[in-house]
Write a structure and sequence with these properties.
The complex is a heterodimer of chains A (299) and B (291). Chain A has 15 helices and no strands. Chain A has helices at residues 14-18, 25-39, 42-64, 74-99, 102-105, 109-112, 119-156, 164-171, 173-191, 193-205, 210-229, 233-243, 257-262, 266-270, 273-295. Chain A is globular, with a radius of gyration of 24 Å. By secondary structure, chain B is an alpha/beta fold. Chain B folds into two domains: 4-204, P-loop containing nucleotide triphosphate hydrolases (Rossmann fold), CATH 3.40.50; 215-283. In chain B, strands 5-6-7-3-8-9 form a six-stranded mixed β-sheet, sandwiched between helices. A four-stranded antiparallel β-sheet of chain B has the order 11-12-10-13. The two termini of chain B are 23 Å apart. In chain B, 46% of the residues are buried. Classes of the chains: A mainly alpha (299), B alpha/beta (291).
């Protein structure tokens, strides 16, 4: 007996029953990412909380110590962005470590595997969170925060004789935002990709305590290398990965990390071999995580 | 095309053999009960069928290799692994949204219809629901999928009798038709006796009994024998004998009903009784109900 013959002719449900909806890969991806945001609300709550803290601190500075008003204001602006991005980075680390481990621990992997979503889509959607979603989200939050800071200071400053225009020129809001976006997408997205790839791989594999499995092996490699060969190449490679490629010409005004990394032109950044090596390593980690997830069962 | 076809299906965990060369063929439109003691290999066999575990041997489910094509298979098949796998953070509307988003055969209106008959609210989180309500929710989601194969592994574990009864009632009345196939395992064998069309016993990784319910009812009879006729009854070679309140209950395979009626009260045995009979014969000689 075929399904269509069971339907009342002209029933509004008929078309849905006989012809299943076509679901594209991008739609599956979209819903998989949305599901991650439902489950891990810290992805947006933590950067938002950081923004609130920054704003409160800034407001305190404006009201309590008016003598600081005439100092250059772009430093607190950059610091605010750094704080929010740092919060996003930390969330990214904890998210990645839990992404493929949590579903095994709470047995919900059996539920997710009962749906027509491939392991590849699942792992990629989880990888997209630290790689794309968190950077864009922290960028948006940081820009809004900086804008609110600008409004707050211009509400306070006119009294002391400074006009909004001169302030705007000094802070060059638009310029900072662009630099921030560039920094976030290149460093937090592309440059850190192998870090998130490694964390996802550990999260897919670890029988328990993914945090220890993620951080112990690098520590052991560093120790063994130090004792056996008296070198620190591995540690150097890790530092290079965390700090980022250094600009060939020192254009950084301050020692600010973000300044240094943003000083790399896109040309310089994309011709850094370290970037491509990192992306290749990230791809290997991800492929391994996809394969592992197929074998994984609840723990 | 058979819905599930397995030849020499085998799965070992280290030195423990969980599934030991199973041959299986499940046709479309059947409701198969897979019955076995703990650790018999039921769940492992089902996991292989669902593409959750690698295996040796040949296996085709709806014409696909489940291990390499799980995501495509899940468009036409679905399963309830057990009641506790729905993510606890999820809200009911999120589950509906997500299913609508990723499943081509999910009918949201149908799922909402099923849920409307329960006390489950769309805004509730899974963690706020009772165990029975979670099972209702999962069943509502699964029944709204126009799937060809539904696999249920202990779907009613830990539920009270009211929910269990409801569960099978709605499965039969609102979901099952002859174009679908259902495979299920459970420890509450009595509750599914009237639900099944086929029954299979599995023990130590092997299928030890396989029979349709029609055949089961025509072949097997149980007689509560009057004490003075026990010897006469035993001459008819019962496959199993047990004592209840001092009376002997004998289980026969392919013995005429009229012949047995002379010995005492005749009735169709429960699956559980036949299961005990087949398994206790298993440990001795290789005979009994095995085909």
């Amino acid at each position: 007996m075929s399904t269509p013959s069971n339907n009342v002719p002209g029933s509004p449900l008929e078309s849905q029953v006989t012809a299943p909806a076509v679901i594209t890969a991008s739609r599956r991806m979209y819903w998989s990412v949305r599901r991650e945001l439902w489950e891990h609300r810290s992805i947006y709550i933590v950067p938002l909380a950081a923004a609130v803290v920054v704003l409160l601190a800034f407001l305190t500075a404006l009201t309590v110590s008016p003598t600081h008003r005439h100092e250059p204001l772009d430093i607190p602006y950059e610091f605010a962005a750094a704080l929010i991005m740092g919060a996003g980075f930390i969330v990214g680390i904890f998210y990645s470590l839990d992404a493929l481990y949590g579903e095994r621990r709470d047995r919900s992997i059996l539920f997710w595997k009962s749906l027509p979503v491939s392991d590849l889509t699942t792992v990629l959607s989880k990888f997209a969170i630290p790689l794309v979603i968190l950077p864009l989200l922290t960028f948006a939050i940081a820009v809004v925060t900086q804008f609110v800071m600008l409004l707050l200071s211009s509400a306070v400053l006119p009294g002391s004789g400074l006009s909004v225009e001169t302030l705007g020129a000094r802070v060059s809001f638009f310029h900072i935002s662009l630099m921030l976006l560039y920094h976030i997408l290149t460093v937090h997205g592309l440059w850190y990709a192998p870090i998130y790839g490694w964390l996802l791989l550990v999260s897919a594999w670890a029988p328990r305590a993914p945090f220890i499995w993620a951080f112990l092996p690098p520590f052991v490699i560093w120790g063994v290398e130090k004792i056996a060969f008296r070198t620190s190449r591995f540690l150097g490679a890790l530092q290079y990965r965390l700090i980022g490629p250094e600009p060939s010409t020192t254009t950084a005004r301050s020692g600010n990390m973000m300044e240094m990394m943003s000083a790399l032109t896109p040309m310089q950044f994309f011709s850094t071999p370290g970037l491509w090596v990192g992306l290749a390593v990230a791809a290997i980690f991800l492929a391994a995580a996809v394969r592992l997830r197929r074998y994984r069962e609840p723990i | 095309m058979a819905c599930i076809e397995a030849r020499g299906l085998r799965k070992a965990f280290g030195t423990t053999i969980a599934v030991d060369g199973i041959n299986l063929r499940v046709e479309e439109g059947r409701i198969l009960g897979l019955i076995g003691p703990n650790g018999a290999g039921k769940t492992t066999a089902l996991n292989a069928i669902l593409g959750l575990t690698p295996y040796q041997g040949e296996l085709k489910v709806l014409g696909r290799d489940p291990w390499t094509e799980r995501d495509q298979l899940m468009r036409d098949a679905c399963f309830v692994a057990d009641v506790a796998v729905l993510p606890r953070w999820m809200r009911v509307w999120q589950a509906l949204d997500y299913f609508t988003g990723v499943h081509p055969r999910f009918d949201r209106a149908k799922a909402e219809g099923f849920l409307a008959k329960t006390t489950i609210r769309l805004a509730s989180k899974v963690r706020e629901l009772s165990k029975g309500m979670v099972a209702q929710l999962h069943l509502a989601l699964v029944m709204a999928i126009d799937a060809k194969l539904l696999v249920l592994d202990e779907p009613t574990l830990g539920l009270d009798i009211l929910y269990r009864k409801q569960f099978y009632d709605s499965l039969l009345n609102d979901y099952f038709d002859r174009s679908r196939t259902i495979v299920l395992t459970t420890h509450q064998v009595e509750e599914i006796q009237d639900v099944l069309t086929d029954v299979m016993f599995i023990n130590r990784g092997r299928i030890v009994f396989d029979c349709s319910m029609e055949e089961f009812e025509s072949r097997y009879l149980e007689v509560m024998v009057n004490p003075e006729q026990v010897a006469a009854a035993q001459a008819l070679k019962p496959i199993h004998e047990r004592q209840v309140f001092g009376r002997s209950i004998l289980l026969f395979d392919r013995v005429e009903r009229q012949q047995l009626a002379a010995l005492g009260d005749v009735r169709t045995p429960s699956i559980a009784d036949l299961f005990v009979a087949v398994l206790s014969n298993q440990s001795g000689a290789a005979q009994g109900g095995t085909r």
